[in-house]
Amino acid sequence: MTAANARTMSNSTTPKSTTSKSTTSKSTMSKSMGRVIAAAEAAGIGIAVTVLPDSTRTAEEAAKVCGCTVAQIVKSLIFQGTESGTLKLFLVSGANRLDLERAAEAAGEPIERADPRRVREKTGFAIGGVAPIGHLAPLPCWIDADLMGFETVWAAAGTPHAVFDIAPGDLRHATGGTVVALGG
Ligand code: 5CA
What we know:
Layout: H1 3-10, H2 24-42, E1 49-51, H3 59-66, E2 73-81, E3 87-93, H4 100-107, E4 111-113, H5 116-123, E5 141-144, E6 153-156, E7 162-166, H6 168-175, E8 178-180
Parallel strand pairs: 2-6, 3-5, 5-8
Antiparallel strand pairs: 1-7, 2-3, 2-4, 6-7
The structure holds 5'-O-(N-(L-cysteinyl)-sulfamoyl)adenosine.
5'-O-(N-(L-cysteinyl)-sulfamoyl)adenosine is lined by residues 56-59, 62, 73-77, 113, 116, 127-130, 155-156, 160.
């Protein structure tokens, strides 16, 4: 199933989970997605979230269900400064691995992968569904230059089953991110 099909079929600009019986995890998921939509709106950007039955936990899975190339998938990677301990967001093309040297240079200090529990606590998103916008608190952000050449890119919308498409320029506007070469 392609994302375009799913969107038409489910008309899912609002999370499906709000209509299903609420469980703790579902209401958490639903709030996560709501924060993504609200953050886009606050930036003056309307996004259509597509909820899919298939997992979009990895860039490869997301590309398959979105019907786009893996390079068009935005990986929202949360790292932390080894000196400051502060969280930092790197938006990386699904075709690239984050180059730690380039990322450290951009961030101004060495970085390391943030612990999944800390990611969830501080951003409100679990690994696999981390969105580029809508975090519990704003994060400094850098955007892979390789994402900027596409008409549209796709990112996680707060859960491992939800994605949204956005023009790279709008992504930059909404995140306030700095565009830099991040691929290794
Ligand atoms: N929904 C998809 C496509 S948008 C997604 O979220 N992809 S992702 O790449 O942004 O998120 C998965 C990423 O989480 C992996 O690339 C990996 O860098 C990171 N990750 C996976 N396991 C861990 C872990 N144990 N600790 C920290 N980061 C992890």
